[in-house]
Amino acid sequence: MAHKAIRMEVADFADRFLSLPTGVALQDQPAWGTDIFAGLMEGGALLESEIADRFIDAINIGNVAPGLKMAQSPDKPEIDDVDDFKQKIDAAFYKAGDVPTDGRPHWGDQLISVEFKRHETNKDPFDDRDDRELDATADERKKVRGQIISYAEVVFRVQHRTFLFMLLIIGRNFRLLRWDRSGTIVTRAIDYVAEPEVLCELLWRMSLQTDEQLGLDPSATRLRSHDRDYNLMDFYAQEHAADLATHERVLTAEELKTMGDPPVFKYVRASFAHSLASSWPRYRLEVPCEGGVRTFLVCRPMFFANGMAGRGTRGYVALDCQTQRFVWLKDVWRVYYKRLMQEGAVLEKLNKDKVVHVPTLLCHGDIREQTTLTSDIWEDAQAAAAAAAAAASGSASATTLPSSLSLRKLPPSSSRTLVAPEISKSSGSHKRSRTAVEIEETEGEEEETLRRHRHYRIVVEEVSLPLSQFSCGQQLVLTIIHCLKAHQGAFEKSGIMHRDVSGGNILIHPIVKPRREDGRLCVAWEGLLSDWELSKPSNIPELLPLRRQPPRTGTWQFLSVAMLSGVPKAVEIPDELESFLHVLLYYSVRYLRSNCHNPAEFIESYFDAYSLHDGVYTCGVVKKHALRDGRLEASDDVAIKFDSPLDRIFKKLLSWFMAFYAVRAYKNMQSEAKKTLGLSTALKTPSRTRASNNTSTVRTKPIEAAESADDTESTEESSDDEDEESTPEPTAKEKKFAERLKKHSSVIKMLRNAFDDSEEWESEDKVGDRVPDDYEPRYPIAKEKGPSTQTVKRQRTASMAVQQEWHIDDIPVPSRATKSMFK
């Protein structure tokens, strides 16, 4: 969902989030002069840089926040890749010993981020007016709001936080913001020149808060250069002669003699060393385990999810303090639903049931009961609004005064200087009553509640390679086979459905094991099906609420045609098998030699494209037609060919899915006919009938023709009006092919047979990344609701960068602003 902001009165904000420590009274606050911000009297005419200079001088010289200092960073980004967009927030509050002097933001040291804007209506990303009408400068407001969201995102990416305070200065006015993974709480705009004691008291209160009360995660200990663990990280990052090279081979006698126990691969240590970037802070993280906690050392994440609201997933190559071994640690704010299993609990069950090719759990757990509070504020707001509506016709009740004298005397809002006066109002204008907390409205339809997130960490033994590192087409197929076996074992042995088969979740894991032929130890690559966070017991039915935009679980680019049909449905085995097909196709087209002369355009049209029907994003035409017609085309009437067993694999899989969707279309037509005509028995096959509107794919060619037709023969064109397509009863062969997709075994057997044809595979068919770095997408991405955080143009489509993950009940739509190590 779009990032949600909730407005709160300043007094309530102070009482709830900036309470005074025990033994400190309001009377203890310093006496600030009423002219402390006199230099900003003409703030409405000043440039942002002038506002920043005068404001920072007033705060630092006046010692408004004892123990904290402000520093500017308006012109210089961080010196390395802390932030992809090289953003330059205007200023921040730092601890006295961490104040930067080089004019850079030093994201890892910021306690309270600060942004300055000119005194203009369209520079305020929030609107305190009573009416619901959209402001004339809504687009500019959205742009500014997206900018400050991106700043908060960088702080959360670099630091380990539960929340973040941000100070927003718009000319003579200020707002205080509190960010967490559920949304943002925003105070009303207040003129700090006219009411200087309000801002000064808030900053004084902030200076009295502990690190934890300022949002720093107490389960993450910041390491300094003099700490033992800091230097331990440097020691284990050094190259080691005993580390094994990654490529597959029989180990030499020298390697057997010197390798460690367990063996360490060079890419693992190199990844850990690469994470020790100079501008990134180092941490010792706690992770719950049986009987207590274990600690792990991390620096820069190898993977991070974009966006502020949501899970905020980060993945690290970590050093285990107990064993000094490298492990994989995932830090995430999981959606807190009682019926949703923790990923570690899923892996624990899979490991217990001896499911192969899945990660090995070390430890996991929720972190110190840390949850987001914005969702609680939202619920309070709904209750307050209901109470206000119920009491609207009655007498006013007594109001509880805030504890602060300076905050208590404020009017409800002093932001009128930011709002252009209205000459007249329509008699039909709609007003809303104010409560202590109000929801900042955003464009488009929103959910009825904010999600509560809980902080969670999980550690597994395996540090794996991204799928893009496969060595050749044959090895790619073997990796898919291994992950299919993992999926099969999880479903058949443990009753678990993965529900997010994607390129980012299929990994390559090098291991040392005896060779089957002679027992000699060798390095072998195996597939690993990871990220079971969205998985679910298969015996629990999925709740499918009928919404305007149906919920989907998974990654847009690899979801099945049926899951992208616009009709809510549970994830089933054929959907997951189809996702494996899409993964195999994506990596084959992008990295292997083929007659597809423009892989970038094919990937964009097949994986990123979408259709829009009545406001609902559905499957793109190219993917839908490929599954419906059983054919992949490199260009008009030219089938994609790899000159390898992959041609046979795709031909068979597409024929099976073509049959599956033909059977599905016929069943849907019968079901719809029963509902429409009230028939008690299934319809007999019509010679010409109308297909169900709920069917997104309709067969246009018999399956026998698809099996026997020459690969270069063009498929029949479907009618522009699919409702007029005939839907004949499936043939016996089609039903047989469709049945093969109800279980894993047929697909695994077919892939295994193709893999075993060693003489037909070419060992050097991988030709590198065929998508140019400077490829410009041809089509616009789906419009996102809410503020835009895309401040720098991306050069690749979402599927060409990395596939974004989506959580249960999230609505995946095509996007390009993604980043991951799994490229």
Automatic annotation (TrEMBL):
Bias-annotated ranges (Low complexity): 403-418
Occurrences of domain Fungal-type protein kinase (ranges): 137-232, 297-586
Region Disordered, residue ranges: 403-450, 684-741, 757-794
Ranges of Acidic residues composition bias in the record: 438-448, 707-727
Top-rank lineage group of the source organism: Eukaryota
Family annotation (SUPFAM superfamilies): Protein kinase-like (PK-like)
Polar residues bias (residue ranges): 684-699
Biased composition (Basic and acidic residues): 731-740, 764-786
InterPro entries per the UniProt record, alphabetical: Kinase-like_dom_sf, Pkinase_fungal
Protein's UniProt name: Fungal-type protein kinase domain-containing protein
